[in-house]
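Practice record 12: protein with MF3.
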Amino acid sequence: MSVTIKSQHEIELMREAGKILAKTHEELAKAIKPGMTTYQIDKLGEEIIRSYGCIPSFLNYEGYPASICVSVNDEVVHGIPSKDRIVIDGDIVSLDAGVIYKGYHSDAARTVAVGEISKEAEKLIEVTRQSFFEGIKFAKEGYHLHDISNAIGDYCESFGYGVVQDLVGHGIGRNLHEDPEIPNFRQKKRGIKLQAGMTLAIEPMVNMGTHEVSWLDDDWTVVTDDGSLSAHYENTILITKGEPEILSLL
Ligand code: MF3
Ligand code: CO
């Protein structure tokens, strides 16, 4: 598949999908309290998504059994919600969610604090979030895809963090995952030229220690190899001739 350019109508639908997803994340983040299970977090997320008339896109995606990926502490992404997993004061929780609105997708992730967290964890979350904004300084016509990758990777590495290489961002639209793949670390080539009308999910996953990760036996949960904390920040954006439009932020 090649990279698609969205029509005005498609962009309108993706704007709506993105707004709903942004509200979902706001509501979900507010609701998270010590003592909740990751199962309860998933159920609440699914309820919010459906209350806006959207379909949770992750549910049953390649067999994924829930609506929200809930990844705690050293879990990087794709944590499977469980009735046995309780989040406690001091945990950090990465929430990744996707919605479908009238056939169009939006995908976004946030890492949130449960109760009071360490200064180090706070910094990891903030640097991960900021790396997305460093990256999208290059998300406009005239730049190339890997200008974004390089900016994200270099920024994170300047703090001594490990940027995950085994997972990448992606194009998005009628499908959750479309071309191109979007790495979050420095690339040898500049990649494809960016064009107005491309819609991309940019999603740095950043570890406090090594960038190396592994998959658990559930075949989904990705964890850091050294047990260090990991944060995730993702938005669906629209490339324009000027500043990018961040579709999944209010
Ligand atoms: N945001 C993630 C991604 O782009 C989550 C999708 S995985 C799923 O890969 F299986 F949970 F849907
Ligand atoms: Co994604």
